[in-house]
Amino acid sequence: MQSLGISAFLVILIGVFSSLSPAFISSGNAIGILTGISFIGLVALGQTLVIIAGGFDLSVAGVAPLAAVVFAKLVNAGTSVLLSIVGAVLVGVLVGVVNGVIVTKGKINPLITTLGMLSISGGLAFTLAEGQSIPIANLTAGFLADTDIGLVPNQVWLTGSAFVAITVVLRFTTYGRSLYALGGNREASWLAGMRVDAITISVYAFSGTLAAVGGVILASQLLAGDGNLGTTAALLSVAAVVLGGGSLKGGSGGALGTLAGVLVLGVLANGLTLLHVSAFYQQIVTGVVLLAAVGLSNLRTQVTASS
What we know:
The chain has twelve helices and two strands, in the order H-H-H-H-H-E-H-H-H-H-E-H-H-H. The chain has helices at about 1-20, 25-50, 60-75, 80-105, 110-130, 155-170, 175-185, 185-190, 195-220, 235-245, 255-275, 280-305; strands spanning about 135, 225. A two-stranded antiparallel ribbon has the order 1-2.
């Protein structure tokens, strides 16, 4: 029901902004919105898996800029673009695995664990970049921003493919069902014979991977690596998941709901920009929307429990 609600809210937003700004409904602006949400869409997908499994990942806001810096430095060192992407993504996988191991074996709260890793990975990004932006000399590194298929940039196709893949995994695989079971009741999942620790580590690894791919997208789009790239990823990704019906208590959510949440955030940012609303006020609006989404999620949980 919350997914349907956020979809209806999205339609209302589109109607409001279309009436206030004729430029909003142009095909070029639509592609601009899709391009703008490509990064946060990938990060939110990873966050979806973690939240469904009953976890939380703030480190994505440090992994994304770290991956962007690693990608830029590898390309500038003469490494092929493909191998540079692999290197950057492996950094995200490593951070994710470390998060999962600390949470499962160290028994440290996911919020504290990933907050610490956010500080570490973000600090490493600034250290490797020496506090500066790293321009990428090899123009082929910008291929994700190219429009090889139609007028839609490659990064949009990549993000769309990821949403389709995660939707299939969550709906039609044993692994996907295991995530919902784990988030719903961790102890019962363990008693049922699930490899609880392995599954938990895997979702953090996936989250780190997708955050790193998002960082590569930003670096490819800007042809530069920077420690400041994607630093709002944690807030926006959590907002998208919760808007789409995910519960911070775990056990609920999905890729399609997250997609609706990401689109709401993208449409809000784009529409307010077209109306010349200050970026500072846009942050306030995002915060209000997040609080409203969490409130609705809690209300839904209470109603479900009482019924």
